[in-house]
Write a structure and sequence with these properties.
The chain is an alpha+beta fold. It has two domains: 32-139, Rieske Iron-sulfur Protein; 148-357, Naphthalene 1,2-dioxygenase Alpha Subunit, Chain A, domain 1, CATH 3.90.380.10. Helices cover 24% and strands 28% of the residues. It has helices spanning 11-14, 16-24, 147-150, 154-161, 182-189, 195-198, 200-205, 294-322, 344-357; strands at 32-36, 45-51, 54-60, 66-70, 84-86, 90-91, 98-99, 105-107, 126-132, 135-139, 168-178, 213-217, 220-225, 247-252, 256-261, 265-275, 278-288. The strands form three sheets. Strands 1-10-9-4-3-2-5 form a seven-stranded antiparallel beta sheet, with no helix packed on it. Strands 11-17-16-15-14-13-12 form a seven-stranded antiparallel beta sheet, with helices on both faces. A three-stranded antiparallel beta sheet has the order 6-7-8, with no helix packed on it. Strand 7 and strand 8 form a beta hairpin. Helix 5 crosses helix 8. The chain is globular, with a radius of gyration of 22 Å.
Length: 363
């Protein structure tokens, strides 16, 4: 007999040193969500955001390409932009050094007085980025493999479930603070072992828990399930697209997930780790053109008042338990046949988490 696979030690969720290692390593070398392309609809549009403690911004250039840069002037390190906006050039507020939208230095007051100054050698530091079905992802590792290598088939499958993705824009992004380590929240999202007991609306009104399963596709966890009796749905699901009568989810390691509700309704989770025991979860819902949609708004409110609220209590209780001297990591419930009552997706997550830390962690 083999020993059961046990959950991670509590220190992976409670030790500030591990969080710092994750910020410098894992979160700096994985694909992270930055912003939505609809925020960059015009040439010169920009949006700033933070990844792994670094301030970054995306901007649409005159050539219509979207680029992502570190948000820092190459002169004396002042940040260049804040929030969202539009500009024909990028002007540092400190000394008015001015950059093209493609990052090259254009001008600066009195720089011609500097002997040997080579303006062509000055450029903003670009960050590896990809547009993934309208979502801008970044990776601080310039040698990172493409997203399709990390998440095989996810782009193609999502294009089938959300064929109108190019028309979608954010209807709402709600910030949900949770007093727990980001991994606690991600693990909770990545298993439905707890759904029937804790999510009555989701388990009885959307999915059939007994058919729920989660399997890895590269570094993607693919959620599949049958739906409950669709005649009892509270909105019209007949979108005219294939898969209108299905629910599916694609979790992209480590901090983003696409969900598609019946009716081909796209919604997302993305996690922003604040510190060891705080994370903010951004819950996003999307409509054509970002215009008000009664059906989607109703779903968003229902989700927020049920599943989201229920999960907050669960993950915060887990974090308190992880800080208890009485906790000893128990065995994960791994069923070789998979299914809703198996924690095999948590096993995969914890393996990835352990690989990201072990070898770096020093006691």
């Amino acid at each position: 007999m083999t020993e059961p696979i046990r959950s991670l030690d509590a220190r992976y969720y409670t030790d500030p040193e591990i969080f710092q290692l994750e910020s410098a390593g894992l979160l700096s070398s994985t694909w992270q969500f930055g912003c939505h392309a609809s925020q960059l609809s015009e040439k010169g549009s920009y949006a700033s955001f933070e990844i792994a403690g670094e301030s970054l911004f995306a901007v649409r250039g005159r050539d219509d390409q979207i680029r992502v840069f570190y948000n820092v002037c190459q002169h004396r390190a002042h940040q260049l932009v804040n929030g969202t906006g539009k500009s024909s050039v990028l002007v540092c507020p400190y000394h008015a050094w001015t950059y093209e939208l493609s990052g090259e230095l254009r001008s600066g007051p009195n720089i011609k007085a500097v002997e040997g100054f080579d303006k062509s050698s000055i450029c903003l530091t670009e960050v590896r980025s990809e547009e993934f079905l309208g979502f801008i992802f970044v990776n601080l590792d310039p040698e990172a493999a493409p997203m399709d290598d990390w998440f095989p088939n996810a782009r193609q499958e999502l294009s089938e479930w959300v064929p109108n993705w190019a028309e979608l824009e954010p209807l709402e992004w709600i910030e949900i603070p949770e007093n727990c380590n980001w991994k606690v929240s991600v693990e909770n999202y990545s298993e439905c072992y707890h759904c029937t007991l804790n999510h009555p609306t989701f388990a009885s009104g959307v999915v059939k828990p007994e058919t729920y399963d989660i399997q890895p596709q590269g570094k993607c966890l693919r959620h599949t399930t049958e739906c409950q009796n669709l005649e009892n749905m509270t909105y019209d699901i007949h979108s005219g697209f294939q898969h209108f009568d299905e629910y599916s989810s694609w979790f992209l390691w480590p901090m983003f997930s696409f969900q598609v509700y019946p009716g081909n309704v796209l919604n997302t989770y993305h996690w922003r780790a604040i510190d060891t025991d705080r994370v903010v979860v951004f819950r996003g819902w999307y409509s054509v053109g970002g215009v008000e949609d009664k059906k989607i708004r109703q779903l968003a409110v229902q989700d927020r008042e049920t599943t989201v609220e229920e999960d907050i209590h669960l993950v915060e209780s887990v974090q308190r338990g992880l800080n208890s001297k009485g906790y000893r990591p128990g065995p994960l419930v791994i069923d070789k046949s998979g299914g809703v009552n198996s924690e095999h997706p948590v096993m995969h997550l914890q393996r990835w988490m352990r690989q990201a830390i072990d070898g770096q962690y020093k006691r």
